[in-house]
Amino acid sequence: MPKIIVGLGEVLWDMLPGGKQLCGAPANFAYHAKALGLDNSVSYIISAIGNDTLGAEIQSQLNRLNINHTHLHISNALKTGFVSVSLDKQGLPNYTIENNVAWDFIPEIPDNFQHPIDAICFGTLAQRSPVSRESIQNFLATLPETTLKIFDINLRQSFFSQKIIESSLTLANIFKINDDELKIISKLLKIPGNEEQQLKTISQRYTIKLGILTRGSSGSLLYTENNTSVHPGFKIKSKDTVGAGDAFTAAVIIGLLRGFELDKINDCANQIASYVCSRSGATPELPAKLVNLLNVKAIPQNNNKGI
Description:
A hairpin with a 5-residue loop joins strand 11 and strand 12. The protein has helices at about 25-35, 55-65, 130-140, 160-170, 180-190, 195-205, 245-260, 260-275, 290-295; strands at about 5-10, 10-15, 20-25, 40-50, 70-75, 80-85, 95, 120, 150, 175-180, 210-215, 220-225, 230. The chain contains nine helices and 13 strands. The protein has about 300 residues and is of the alpha/beta class. The protein has a single domain, classed as 3-Layer(aba) Sandwich (UDP-N-acetylmuramoyl-L-alanine:D-glutamate ligase), CATH 3.40.1190. It starts with a strand and ends in a 13-residue tail after the last helix. The longest helix is centred in the C-terminal third of the chain and has 16 residues, at about 260-275.
């Protein structure tokens, strides 16, 4: 039976200095999950676009990337979303996000997938609108606990609140955050301690199975109740960091679905995210050597396994 992997939320164009690129964290996640792919896996995007030129170009790009878009709503009243992106000297992006676009009004989501969903990734940005927030949270609430429900916090501008974050954590069983975001969330939720202690508190408070912390070029930390994996990262020449976090998340999820141990997952995810940083845009084609990192059968371990 094929694995069903879903990116739920915004899909849009990033207007980068070098030209426009398909983006939106859920779409990036869906692409990388498919690229790293399990046998016969299907990646879906659940979102909304306008009935316009940019929307038609998104559909064309999704076809090229082999992402199923049968759950992509097309609005005749609202335009396709886009984001103006500038890069600083380190290649870090600054975003100016258009308001009141199609993905702010994702309608009720039908549960008519061919098979049960194995993993679904969502964030805060698409929940800035009450309409999309209700659709997203209602759909997540219908999914069984066996589905990996990844809350990629992905803070953008002022498009988040304590209420959205807490309700999303309650619906998730995995969460992913970067070190800058953890400082904001820990202050917002009044969580003391160092990074590992903060991940532990969030996981216990909201019944999370796996906490994922990315630290840019300094690597990452994966936390479960029974195990912690720390990776120092890889030193590379970064072109831009757009999509690297989404590639990291996708690699972790594929590793979990294949049954790899946590340290192996952490190393593979860092390799893949580093490669994305070395290329322009969020969805570069991944070389076979990276795809093959996770495209092998896992050897069962006595300890240090995933979740």
